Structure formats: C-alpha cells, structure tokens
C-alpha cells in the first residue's frame, strides 16, 4: 500500500504546479456521527473506502446522485461548512466554504505506481482508498493530506473557483 506521506511527497509538487483551484458548489447534509459506526463511502463506480467514527466526528452526506457518505473530523468540519438550516433527527443542511486544489488523474500520473488504470493508497484516515483513471486527486489549502474524489461526484459537487 502506498502511504499517505508518500502520496503527498510525490503528488504535491504536481498539484502545486498543475492543479486547479475548485470550490464546492453543492450543499451537504451532516450530523454528529455515532462513535464506533463504520461508514463505507460508495460512489457511482462502487465502494471507495471505509472509516470508523470517533467521538466528535461528523457524518456527511453529499447531495449527489450516489449520496455518498463520509466522516470528517470536528475541526476540519468547522473550517469547511456553515449551518444553514436544522433538519430532523440531528441532521442539518450546510453550505461549503472552503477551496481545494485538484488534478485530473491520467495514466501518466499513475505510471510511477502502476501500469493499470487504478491503484490503492492510504487515505488520510489510514484506510485503503481506490484511485481510478479520470478521478481527481485533491489537497486542501493546508496541503497536509491528499485524497480521491470520484469523477462523477467531483463534477456534481465542485466548480472552478
């Protein structure tokens, strides 16, 4: 498995030179996660990764065709989202407020790691995540982590800043 730090070390210079700044355009639903619950993130092209909720984590549901769910740490959530409206059962509707740097995954980008059109690497939450040709590799403004966003979901949720 390719570790998170190795991914950052290799791809951060590429993202800094060739990446494009995007902002999230779609609202999300979110609520406090139940500690110990395992969340499997499913996108249009299948299971992406999984993560186990810890105390304080937020469960996020994107408003996309696949309604993918994932967990976010409390400090990160507060930086990225603002409450717009409270909903039922602890859910809220939130507006995104951050930006990311993203790059489209090509076979040339994958070449140092694999000859296939996909690879696995360690997500920031220490679980395996799948990266496919055409997906997007993304870093937040802090450039302290790197993760994947599936192609279909990326275009449903992001626009150029």
Task: Write up this protein.
The protein is an alpha+beta fold. It has one domain (4-160). It has helices at 4-18, 74-80, 107-110, 151-157; strands spanning 20-24, 28-32, 38-43, 46-52, 58-62, 69-72, 81-86, 92-96, 99-104, 118-122, 128-132, 136-139, 147-149, 158-160. The strands form four sheets. The chain has a five-stranded antiparallel β-sheet. Strands 6-5-2-8-7 form a five-stranded antiparallel β-sheet, with helices on one face. The protein is globular, with a radius of gyration of 15 Å. The termini are far apart. The model has no long low-confidence stretch (mean pLDDT 96).
Estimated radius of gyration: 15 Å
**Main sheet: strands, sense, barrel:** 5 strands, antiparallel
Q: In order across it, which strands form the biggest sheet?
A: 13-12-9-1-14
Distance between the termini: 33 Å
Number of strands: 14
- In the predicted model, the low-confidence regions spanning at least 5 consecutive residues are none
Number of domains: 1
Average pLDDT, to the nearest integer? 96
- List the secondary-structure elements in sequence, H or E: HEEEEEEHEEEHEEEEHE
Q: What proportion of the residues form beta strands (DSSP E)?
A: 35-45%
């Amino acid at each position: 498995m390719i570790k998170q730090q190795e991914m950052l070390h290799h791809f951060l210079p590429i993202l800094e030179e060739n990446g494009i700044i995007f902002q999230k355009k779609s609202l999300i639903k979110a609520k406090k996660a139940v500690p110990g619950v395992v969340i499997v993130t499913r996108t249009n092209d299948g299971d992406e990764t999984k993560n186990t909720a810890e105390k304080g984590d937020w469960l996020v549901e994107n408003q996309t065709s696949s309604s993918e769910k994932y967990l976010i740490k409390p400090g990160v959530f507060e930086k990225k989202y603002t409450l717009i409206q409270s909903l039922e059962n602890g859910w809220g509707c939130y507006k995104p407020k951050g930006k990311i740097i993203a790059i489209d995954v090509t076979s040339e980008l994958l070449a140092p790691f694999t000859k296939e059109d996909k690879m696995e690497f360690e997500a920031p939450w220490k679980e395996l995540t799948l990266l496919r040709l055409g997906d997007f590799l993304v870093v937040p403004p802090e450039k302290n982590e790197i993760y994947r966003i599936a192609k279909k979901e990326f275009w449903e949720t992001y626009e150029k800043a």
